[in-house]
Amino acid sequence: MDTRTQTNLSKLNACRQQDLDIITENMSQIIERRRNSEIFERVATNSQPLSPSIWCSPRLEAIALIWTPITVIAAVAAVLLWTSYFLTDDFFISAQ
């Protein structure tokens, strides 16, 4: 290799090392921010008293979480059946 090639290669290696240093610095900043946010979250959750649930009981909350979607689906199905019955009933009355 000639001296010009060696010079260019050394410049490229120096730039690559600078890029690696920047990446390492950025990663360490990200990790530090993550640690700080985790510490802040721990302090915030430990200092706040637990707010009571609107259900006042874990059992009632579990029942509500299980039966609410079922009740909503049943209500929607009932409304759809009711409206389809009245729409078809009106259609047959007006057709005769």
From TrEMBL:
This is Uncharacterized protein. It is a single-pass type IV membrane protein. It comes from the Eukaryota. GO terms for biological process: endoplasmic reticulum to Golgi vesicle-mediated transport; protein transport; retrograde vesicle-mediated transport, Golgi to endoplasmic reticulum. InterPro entries: Sec22 (IPR044565). The chain crosses the membrane at residues 62-87. It comes from Rubroshorea leprosula. Keywords: Membrane, Protein transport, Transmembrane, Transmembrane helix, Transport. It is found in: Endomembrane system. One of its GO terms (molecular function) is SNAP receptor activity. One of its GO terms (cellular component) is endomembrane system.
